[in-house]
Amino acid sequence: MDVFSDSYNLDVYVTGFLWILKLTASATVCAVVLGVLLAAMRVSPVPVLRGFGTAWVNIFRNTPLTLIIFFCYFGLYSTLGVTLSDDLELNNYWLGVLGLSIYTAAFVCEAIRSGINTVPAGQAEAARAIGMTFRQTLSLIVLPQAGRAVVAPLGSILIALCKNATIVGTIGLMESSNAMKELINSNGNAVFTIFFVFAGTFAVVLIPTGYGFGWLANRLAVKR
Amino acid sequence: MSDEALIVLENVNKWFGPLHVLNDVSLSVARGEVVVVIGPSGSGKSTLCRSINRLEPINSGTITFDGKPLPAEGKALARLRSEVGMVFQSFNLFAHKTILQNVMLGPIKVRKEKSVEVRERAMSLLDRVGIGNQAEKYPAQLSGGQQQRVAIARALAMQPKALLFDEPTSALDPEMVGEVLDVMTSLAREGMTMVVVTHEMGFARHAANRVVFMADGQLVEQAAPAEFFANPKSDRAKDFLSKILTH
C-alpha cells in the first residue's frame, strides 16, 4: 500500500475517481432525459418521430462506445471545431459526457419501452376516455408506471455507464483508468496493489448501488 | 328524458380485417335515456359502445354527439371524450394513483379546475358510491366491486353529458354485482343518459328505457324492456332469450 501513501499518487487516484463520478452523474441525467424522449418518440403516433427513435437506437446501440467517444473528439472537436468549454480538460470532459449520453440513451430508451409494454392497454384507454391528450396520457399515466417497472434494469444500465466512463480516458481525461495506467508506469513493483485498489473501488461503490436499485424497484413497484 | 337526441349513430360500419363487426348500425339515444345493449358474445355490442367516444374508430357512417360529429383526433376529440364518461369491464383505475387521485386527476389535468374544489366534489362522489373511507388507498387494495364504483365516480367527476358502460359487471364476483348495479340504477333514476352493454337482464328490465338487441354486428331489434322480454319479435332474439332465461 506504499504507493498510495505518497500524496501525489493519492491525488492521482482520487482525481481519477472524481472524474468518473462527475462523468457518471452528468451522463446519467442526460441519458435518462434523452432516453425517455426517445422512448416517447418510439411509441408516438407520428411516423417521423418513430423512425427517428428507431434509427437512434439501431445506430448507437450497435456502435462501440470507443468509436463514439473518438468521433466526439476527432470528428466534432478536431475536425468540426465543436468546443464545449474553453478549458481543454473540461472540453474533453463534456465531449465524454456527450458520447456517453448518446450511447447510453439508446439503452435507456429500450428499457423504458419494455416498461411501457408492461402497462396494461386499459390504463391508456381510461386516460384517453377522460379526455387526456396523447402527451398527458404518456406523461401522467403510462411513463410513471413504466418507469417503476424498469428501475432494476435502469440500475444495470447506470452501473454499466459508470464503468464505461473509463473510456473517456482514451481522449485524454485523467479519469481512473488513465490514473491507474500512470501509477503503474511509475510504480512497476506494485502492479497488483494498484490494480486491486482501482478495481476494488469500483466494486465497493457499485455493489451497494446494485442492491440499492433492487430495493428501490421493490418499493416503487406498482401493485395490480 | 326528452325527445332531443344526444347520441346519434347513422349507418355505422366497422371491420376488424375481414370481420364485419358493425354492420350498418343506426341508433339514436335521447337526452336522459337509458339504453341497454344486449346480445351474444361477438355481436359487436362492446365495439358499438367504444365507437361512441372513438376508442374504436369506425370505417364508414356518422356518429354525432350533442349535435356535433365526432372529431377525428387531437384536442377536439379529447374534449369530446371528457364529456362522455366511460366505465370499463376491467375497471382500469390508474394503478399508481390513490382512489382520490384517480377521481381528481381528470378535472384537474383535463379541465384545469382548482384542486380544492375538485377534492370536495371527488370526496362527495366517493361518499355517494360508498368508498369515501377508502380514499387514500390504492386500487389494488380494493375489491372488484369497490374498484368499479370508484371508476364510476371517476367518470362522474368530469360531469359528463352521458355515460358509457362496457360490460361493467362481467369481471366481478357474483356477490359484488349488486353494489355496482345499485349505483347504476340510481344514476339512471336521476336522468343520466346511459348506454349500457351488459348481460344483467334484471338491470335491463327495471332500469332501461329501451333494450337494443344486437347479433352478428347488426342491430336486430329494439323495444321497451317489458315489451322486448315478453314478446321478442326476431328469431335471433327469441333464441338468445330462451338460452339465458331458462336457468
UniProtKB/TrEMBL annotation, chain A:
Segments crossing the lipid bilayer: 12-38, 59-80, 92-112, 194-217
Signal peptide residue numbers: none
Residue span(s) of domain ABC transmembrane type-1: 17-208
Subcellular location: Cell membrane
Matches recorded under Gene3D superfamilies: MetI-like
Topology relative to the membrane: Multi-pass membrane protein
Keywords from the named record: Amino-acid transport, Cell membrane, Membrane, Transmembrane, Transmembrane helix, Transport
PANTHER family xrefs: AMINO-ACID ABC TRANSPORTER PERMEASE PROTEIN YHDX-RELATED, MEMBRANE COMPONENT OF AMINO ACID ABC TRANSPORTER
Family: Belongs to the binding-protein-dependent transport system permease family. HisMQ subfamily.
Protein name: Glutamate ABC transporter permease
Organism, as annotated: Paractinoplanes durhamensis
TrEMBL record, chain B:
Gene Ontology molecular function: any one: ATP binding
Topology of this chain in the membrane: Peripheral membrane protein
CDD domains: ABC_HisP_GlnQ
Residue ranges of domain ABC transporter in the record: 7-241
Keywords of the record: Amino-acid transport, ATP-binding, Cell membrane, Membrane, Nucleotide-binding, Transport
Primary location group: membrane
UniProt xrefs under InterPro entries: AAA+_ATPase (IPR003593), ABC_ATPase_HisP-typ (IPR030679), ABC_transporter-like_ATP-bd (IPR003439), ABC_transporter-like_CS (IPR017871), MetN_ABC_transporter-like (IPR050086), P-loop_NTPase (IPR027417)
PROSITE patterns, alphabetized: ABC_TRANSPORTER_1, ABC_TRANSPORTER_2
Compartment(s): Cell membrane
Similarity field: Belongs to the ABC transporter superfamily.
Protein name: Arginine ABC transporter ATP-binding protein
Species annotation: Paractinoplanes durhamensis
